[in-house]
Design goal:
Layout: E1 4-7, H1 11-18, E2 31-35, E3 41-44, E4 52-56, H2 66-75, E5 78-80, H3 93-96, E6 98-103, E7 105-111, E8 116-123, E9 129-139, E10 146-156, H4 159-164, E11 170-172, E12 174-175, H5 180-184, H6 190-196, E13 205-209
Parallel strand pairs: 4-10, 5-10
Antiparallel strand pairs: 1-2, 1-7, 3-4, 6-9, 7-8, 8-13, 9-10, 9-12, 10-11
C-alpha cells in the first residue's frame, strides 16, 4: 500500500511546481516522512487557486457523529482504483472531488521470511510528482468545524513495485505531468477517470533501500532520505 510519503519541498517550490498560490500554507517546510495514520495537515492541490491543508484519511460528508470519524478515517487513507466507483466512501468524491497529492517519493516494504526491508521510491527526473487523490468536506454538526480530508488512490503494482510491495502488490497512482490538470477537470466521464488510474511505468522509476529506523526520526530531518 502507500501509507508513508515524503515531500522534500517547501511552499515556494510547490507554488512554482503547480502554478498555485500558497497563502494558506506559507509556513510549510519539507516533510521527509509523513505517515497516513498521523492525520496531520498536508498540502493538497485542487482546482482552487490556493494550495490548502487537508488531512489524510477521507471522512465522507455523510458521516453523522464525530466519534465515528476516528474509525472511518483510518479505513479510508487508501482508495483502491478497482472499487472506487462503487465504494460508499469514494463514489461521490471520485466523480466530483479529485485532487493532487504532491510528493517527492514514497516508502514501501519488501517482506522476507524473517524481516522486512524498507525502500524509498522516486520518479526519475521528476523531483515532485502528484499522486491521484480524492477529497471530501465534513462538517461537525455539534461544533460546525469544517474538516477537509483526502485519500490516496492505489492501483496494481508495476513489476518493480511488485518486487518491493511483495505482500499486497499495490502502488499509488502517479499522474504524468500532462495529466495533472486533466485529473482535476470537473467534467471527466467515468471512463476518462478510470483511464488515468494506471500503474506508472517502472522504467521511469528508481528505488533504494531506506534506513530501517527512518520512522523514528523527526519528519523534518533530511537524513530520513539517506540510503541505507
Amino acid at each position: 500500500m502507500c501509507y508513508h510519503i515524503s515531500l522534500a519541498a517547501g511552499a515556494e517550490e510547490l507554488a512554482r511546481r503547480f502554478d498555485r498560490k500558497t497563502d494558506l500554507i506559507r509556513k510549510f517546510r519539507p516533510a521527509y516522512h509523513v505517515c497516513a495514520f498521523s492525520h496531520l495537515p498536508y498540502p493538497v492541490v485542487t482546482r482552487d487557486e490556493q494550495i490548502q491543508y487537508f488531512r489524510w484519511g477521507l471522512i465522507p460528508y455523510w458521516i453523522g457523529k464525530a466519534a465515528q470519524t476516528v474509525t472511518v478515517r483510518n479505513q479510508t487513507v487508501i482508495a483502491r482504483a478497482e472499487t472506487i466507483f462503487e465504494n460508499a466512501s469514494f463514489r461521490v468524491p471520485i466523480r466530483r472531488r479529485r485532487c493532487l497529492i504532491p510528493v517527492s517519493g514514497f516508502f514501501g516494504w519488501r517482506h522476507g521470511q524473517a524481516q522486512k526491508t524498507p525502500y524509498y521510491v522516486t520518479v526519475r527526473d521528476r523531483p515532485i510528482v502528484a499522486l491521484a487523490g480524492v477529497f471530501d468536506c465534513w462538517i461537525d454538526r455539534e461544533s460546525d468545524e469544517v474538516v477537509m480530508t483526502y485519500s490516496v488512490i492505489t492501483t496494481e503494482a508495476n513489476p518493480m513495485m511488485r518486487h518491493i510491495n511483495n505482500r499486497d502488490c499495490r502502488m499509488p497512482v502517479i499522474l504524468q505531468d500532462g495529466d495533472e490538470e486533466c485529473w482535476l477537470h470537473p467534467d471527466l466521464s467515468e471512463g476518462q477517470i478510470a483511464a488515468l488510474l494506471k500503474p506508472y511505468p517502472e522504467q521511469a522509476m528508481d528505488c533504494e533501500p531506506a534506513q530501517p529506523d527512518f520512522m523514528r526520526k523527526v519528519p523534518g530531518d533530511p537524513g530520513i532520505l539517506m540510503p541505507a
